[in-house]
Structures are given as C-alpha cells and as structure tokens.
Amino acid sequence: MIDGVAAAIQTLGGLDAVVNAAGVLRAAHTHDMSLQLWNQIIGINLTGTFLVVREALPALLANDTSVIVNFSSTSATFAHPYMAAYAASKGGIQSFTHALALEYGKQGVRAVCVAPGSIKSGITDATGGYLPPDSDWSLLAKLSPILPTTLESSGAPMGDPAAVAGVVAMLVSDDGAFITGTEIRIDGGTHA
C-alpha cells in the first residue's frame, strides 16, 4: 500500500487527489467476534486509509489545492446489525476526515467523505453470506433505498456504482472546490 502511493507519485509526477475506496465488510454477532476479525476490519478500513493519506500528504501539500476523498459508509452514523467493527472503522474514517480538513485546509487540502449505502460492489457481493446464520432479517429491512434500484439475485436492492463514481468525480473537480470536512451520503434515500 505504501509502496503503491510512492509509485503513483513517481509515475504521475505528483498527486492532485487521493481517493481511498478500499475496504472490507465482515459481519458477526459482537459477542462472537474474535479480536483477530476486529483488528482485520479496523486495520484494512481505518488504518489503511490513514497510511495512504499519510504517505500522500507531502505530494498533496506541494500543490496550491488538492483533495482527499475517503470512503466511509452509512454504517458510520446509522446502526446496521452485526457490523459493529465495520461501523466503528467507518465512523473512525469520518472523524479522521474531519480532522484532516481542519488540519490541512488552510494549506489548500480539502478532505471529504463519501458514505455509500447499499451499492453493488465487491464489498457487498457476498454480504448475505457473511451474516450470522441466526440473523434477524427484520433488522435489515430498514436498509432499503426509497429510490428505484436493481434487485440482486438475493432480492436485496442495490444502487449503481456509477452514482458513487459521479459524486467522487465532482468532489475531485473544480465543482467540489468549496466542499470539505463533511460526508456526502449516497444511499438512495435509505436514511431520509
């Protein structure tokens, strides 16, 4: 990961923007969750975001303006059952992003979170398979978007990744120049 940031800086001759979109989702009852699983989720989602930002900041600070877009989740601010470690990692990313916006804003670096809801992606492809066998599915019903979506083979409504990509593209462009220190939810109205 760290080598990848250095390689990108060298190949591109600098950085104007960094988008931290990697993550992992694993579900478990909190009382059954191993410390290893907790650390894996926090390590990939939160610590991984920190490491990429830390390594990219010198290149970002070399510009008059630059932007960091970190992927959080609606799980950071709205309870999703069986996902305590995931929610903690994504809540940490939101707080981290706020701190970055304050610390580096006067130096021209913007920091923003996008908080996708149920979006068809690699992280959601097997979510149902990761839920505990005794999951209370009625707790998950509130996660349905109010806007039209694609129904997956599991019957789960999912938004299109292009919706998220469009928001990220706007944030790293001049159109997003006055947006920093906040989250933008992309959830089809799930939490309206």
Automatic annotation (TrEMBL):
Q: Which Pfam families match?
A: adh_short_C2 (PF13561)
Q: Name one GO molecular function term.
A: oxidoreductase activity
Output the InterPro entries linked to this UniProt entry: NAD(P)-bd_dom_sf, Sc_DH/Rdtase_CS, SDR_fam
- Main enzyme class: oxidoreductase
Going by the UniProt record, its keywords in alphabetical order are:
Oxidoreductase
Question: Which EC numbers characterise this protein's activity in its record?
Answer: 1.1.1.385
Lineage top rank: taxon: Bacteria
Family of the protein in this entry? Belongs to the short-chain dehydrogenases/reductases (SDR) family.
Q: What's the protein here called?
A: Dihydroanticapsin 7-dehydrogenase
Please report the organism this UniProt entry assigns to the protein: Mycobacterium talmoniae
Upper classification of the source organism reads: Bacteria, Bacillati, Actinomycetota, Actinomycetes, Mycobacteriales
